[in-house]
Amino acid sequence: MSCLTTSMNNVPARHRGKIVGLLDSAFSAGPALVALIYGVVFVNGHVHDEENQNLQGFYLFSAITFGVVNVLGVIILDVYMLEEPTVKQLKIQDSQDTSVTKNEPENSELEESIHNDRKDIRGLKMLKMFDFHFLLWPYIMCASLQLMYINNITTYLKSFHHEDKSTLFTVLNPISATFSKLLIGFISDALIDKIPRAGVILFTTCLQTVVLAVCVFYGDLYPVILLALFGVGIPNGATWCLTPTMTSEFFGMKYFGLNWGFMMVGTAFGGLIIQKIFGALYELEIGDPTVTDCYGLKCFRWSYAIAAVWSLCSSIFYLGLLERRLAFRKMKKQTQDEARKRKESVAWKHSISM
């Protein structure tokens, strides 16, 4: 959080998607590297008997690495103020927009959002905005179901008798998220003038919905397991790259840490709920309390179905968000066109009077 907030404050808004994508891709690359190190160094050939793996050594390695990284963060992280001309330009633009529109009635939230385009919003005011809820709830649902899938990837493999692929999949999953975050960050910045970021995340979420729906019926086939790995990993990258970026754009950077932290708390509860559902359904299919492992697609069919429904609901929310952002752009363009026409009219009258 500290690295993300500091870095976002240090770059212009037009590059925010790139910097968030870069930081989040590094965040995803870490688990891939650690999973690879664990599989190579600490498994010690005990693939099917986890109790004989060197877990104590892995914990010691993690503690040392964690301490070193945090010390580096304290030393390196700093805030660099934006150049003063940029700030002045923003103030001039704000004053121009206010002078043009101050006498016009505000008959909708979209019109109000034009006046608040660069304002910092938090608390109750943010909770009353539709854009916040169109962003919050799909984020909670997507992040929660993606966390459930990632946390249980080895359980899927064991149940489908592909346990020997555990290291491969635990490495490939964060790799897919790493590259998707990096690419989507750059792509969303490049297309921002034509396609809102909500359109990009809507596309990836629809892809995720289709993949999860396929898993309900064919999730035990190895090609489908591989498809699901990327079909969830890529949308996971889009979720964690574009959601904080849109949060900063909609509600400003001044309270970004507070707003983003509040949204992340929601994912913690959502992840807990869907994980509890996953565990209950898994144990229900076992039936025998003396047995701990379940085998076959029947163990996960309903959890796949619930995840697919959550993903579909998220797509609907993102569709609503996309519609609102397109309407916002249209109204903002109309406001700018009216301002330009008024300036041209004033200039013409001034030239006539002379």
From TrEMBL:
Keywords: Membrane, Transmembrane, Transmembrane helix. It is a multi-pass membrane protein. It is found in: Membrane. Residues 93-113 are annotated as: Disordered. Its main location: membrane. The keyword Transmembrane helix applies. It holds the Pfam family MFS_1. One of its GO terms (cellular component) is membrane. Residues 93-102 have a biased composition (Polar residues). GO terms for molecular function: transmembrane transporter activity. This is Major facilitator superfamily (MFS) profile domain-containing protein.
